[in-house]
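Fold it.
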Amino acid sequence: MLTKYTKLIIGVFLLLWILGCGGMKMITTTPDNNSGQLPRRKVVITIDTSQQDKLFAQFRKFADKQGFTILIDTRPPGVEGFYVDMYRRDIEINGTNPFAPEEYKLGIYDTDRQNPASDSVVDALVSDLQNFVSEVPGATFSVEK
């Protein structure tokens, strides 16, 4: 017969095993946004922090040209950085500078997964965004597919 101490150890081990397996599933399958999908493209923009206002101005110009509604806001209290969200009927672009104030990571998502935008539309948006960001002195722009 198992003692209370042995049962406790087995229970803790099982709990840790279940949490560990569930956590591994979350790590490998968690999407980059709240809608449950992975981004069509990931964009990384690096700037000198003194150029942040110019970057935001270029984001706004891009959003106006492409018909996006845009929100640029500070992150929650106690967390440095900004959150950027642009959305329109077919595409949403969002991201933040999560680990470094000079590096913005943006994801480009379909608004409606049942009716995704064509690759040519997504590629044209990325190209246009790159053109606007290139107006920021010293900015770098890279794309991950």
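The chain has two domains: 1-30, 41-144.
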